[in-house]
Write a structure and sequence with these properties.
With 338 residues, the chain is of the alpha/beta class. The chain has helices at residues 39-46, 96-99, 140-159, 175-186, 198-206, 220-226, 240-248, 273-278, 291-302, 318-326; strands at residues 2-5, 14-17, 27-37, 62-70, 82-86, 88-90, 110-111, 123-127, 132-133, 167-171, 190-195, 211-214, 230-235, 250-258, 282-285, 310-314, 333-337. Bound molecules: nicotinamide-adenine-dinucleotide and zinc ion (2 copies). One zinc ion binds next to helix 2. Keywords: Metal-binding, Oxidoreductase, Zinc.
Length: 338
C-alpha cells in the first residue's frame, strides 16, 4: 500500500510502498477513502512538541474509510462499515478519566498518527472501539475534517459554556477555526473571527461570523474592546503572542480556551496575574473530544447544521500541501483523497 512517512523531523515526508497491516485482536483494518491534513500532523512531522513521535511513522488522524477486515473478537463492527479513525486511537476504559467521560485525558492512551501509524496511507489498523461510525449522509470528504477539526472545536465550545448573547472571539480561521465559528454560532454566540488572511476572514463571514478582525492590519485587542470585549476567546492560532492577545481581549468573567499548540521553541504564553484575578478570568486547556462528542459532530452535520470547507489533493502532494497550510494559502482544510 501507499503511505506518506515521516522519516526524520528535518526531511520532507516520503511516499513509500508498505505492506498492508493486519488487524490484531480487537482491531479493524480500514481502507482509507479520505484523510484530512491537520496542523498537528505538521507539528508531528517537525517534532515541534515536548513529547515527540518516533520516526519512521505515518501521520494522519482524520482518516475515514471502509472496514475491510476484522481482528479476533471484533463483533460490533461489520465489513463494509464506514468509520473515522480519530486522534484518540485508544484509551484504557478503566481509569477515573475514562469512566467519568474524560477519556481524552486518559494517561494510558494511543494517539493516531503520533504514537501509532495514522491515516496518511491506503490502509490503517484501528482499535475497533475507537473507530467511530460515520452516519449515512456524511461523505468521507466532509467526515475527515470533522474527525479532528470538528470534534476539537465542538468540545472547545462545550467547555467554554457559552451562553446565547455572549461574544466569542475565534483566533485563527483555518481548519479548526472555520468549524469553531459555526459551533459558536449554533450555541447562540456572537462571533468575532480573527485571522491575518483576507480570504479566511471572508470565509468566516460566509459561515456566519458577525464581525471580522484582520490582525495583520488592526490591533485585535483594541478592535475587540471596541465591540465590548469578548466573553470567550478560543485560540487556534499557532503563536504564543496570539494567546496573550486573546487574554487581553476578554471582559471580566471571560474564559480563555487554549486549543492551538505552538512549537515548544516558540516559548510559553505569559499571563499577567493581576487582571486574571481581578477580572475573574478562567484559563481552560481543551484537547480533542470524546467518541460521544464526535458522534454528536457527525449527527449535527448529517442534519445539515454545519458546512465543511475543504480542498482535495492527492497523497503524493503531501509536502506541497504542508507548505500551503504553513503559508496560509490553504482554504480551511486540505483532504487527501485515497
Ligand atoms: P491551520 O493552520 O489550518 O489554522 C491556523 C490559522 O491561524 C490560519 O488560518 C492562520 O492564517 C491563522 N493565523 C496565523 N497567524 C495568526 C495571527 N497572528 N492571528 C490570528 N490568526 C492567525 O491549523 P489548524 O489545523 O486549524 O490547527 C491549529 C492549531 O490547533 C495547531 O497548533 C494544531 O496542532 C492545534 N490543534 C489542537 C488540537 C487540540 O485538541 N487541542 C486539535 C487539533 C489541532
Ligand atoms: Zn488534529
Ligand atoms: Zn483511561
Amino acid at each position: 500500500m501507499k503511505a506518506a512517512v515521516v522519516t526524520s523531523f528535518t526531511e520532507p515526508l516520503v511516499i513509500e510502498e508498505r505492506r498492508v497491516p493486519e488487524p490484531g485482536p480487537g482491531q479493524v483494518l480500514v481502507r482509507i477513502e479520505a484523510s484530512g491534513l491537520c496542523h498537528t500532523d505538521i507539528h508531528a512531522a517537525h517534532g515541534d512538541w515536548p513529547v515527540k513521535p518516533t520516526p519512521p511513522f505515518v501521520p494522519g488522524h482524520e482518516g475515514v474509510g471502509i472496514v475491510e477486515a476484522l481482528g479476533a473478537g471484533v463483533t460490533h463492527r461489520d465489513l463494509g462499515d464506514r468509520v473515522a479513525v480519530p486522534w484518540l486511537g485508544h484509551a484504557c476504559g478503566r481509569c477515573d478519566y475514562c469512566v467519568s467521560g474524560w477519556e481524552t485525558l486518559c494517561p494510558d492512551q494511543q494517539r493516531t498518527g503520533y504514537s501509532v501509524d495514522g491515516g496518511f496511507a491506503e490502509y490503517v489498523v484501528a482499535d475497533a472501539d475507537f473507530a467511530m461510525p460515520v452516519p449515512d449522509g456524511v461523505s468521507p470528504h466532509d467526515a475527515a475534517p470533522l474527525t479532528c477539526a470538528g470534534v476539537t472545536t465542538y468540545k472547545a465550545v462545550k467547555v467554554a459554556h457559552i451562553r446565547p448573547s455572549e461574544r466569542v472571539a475565534v483566533f485563527g480561521i483555518g481548519g479548526l477555526g472555520h468549524l469553531a465559528v459555526q459551533y459558536a454560532r449554533l450555541v447562540g454566540g456572537t462571533v468575532i473571527a480573527v485571522d491575518v488572511e483576507v480570504d479566511k476572514l471572508e470565509l468566516a463571514l460566509e459561515l456566519g461570523a458577525d464581525h471580522v478582525v484582520n490582525a495583520r492590519e488592526t490591533d485585535p485587542v483594541a478592535a475587540i474592546e471596541e465591540l465590548g470585549g469578548a466573553d470567550v476567546a478560543i485560540v487556534l492560532a499557532v503563536l504564543p503572542s496570539v494567546f496573550e492577545q486573546a487574554f487581553a481581549a476578554l471582559r471580566p468573567g471571560g474564559r480563555l480556551v487554549c486549543v492551538g499548540l505552538p512549537p515548544e521553541t516558540d516559548g510559553p504564553m505569559s499571563l499577567p496575574i493581576f487582571p486574571t484575578v481581578l477580572k475573574g478570568i478562567s484559563v481552560i486547556g481543551s484537547i480533542v473530544g470524546t467518541r460521544q462528542d464526535l458522534a454528536e459532530v457527525f449527527d449535527l452535520h448529517a442534519r445539515g447544521r454545519t458546512r465543511v470547507v475543504a480542498e482535495t489533493r492527492k497523497l503524493d502532494e503531501v509536502n506541497d500541501a504542508i507548505e500551503d497550510v504553513l503559508s496560509g494559502r490553504a482554504t480551511a482544510r486540505i483532504v487527501f483523497q485515497l
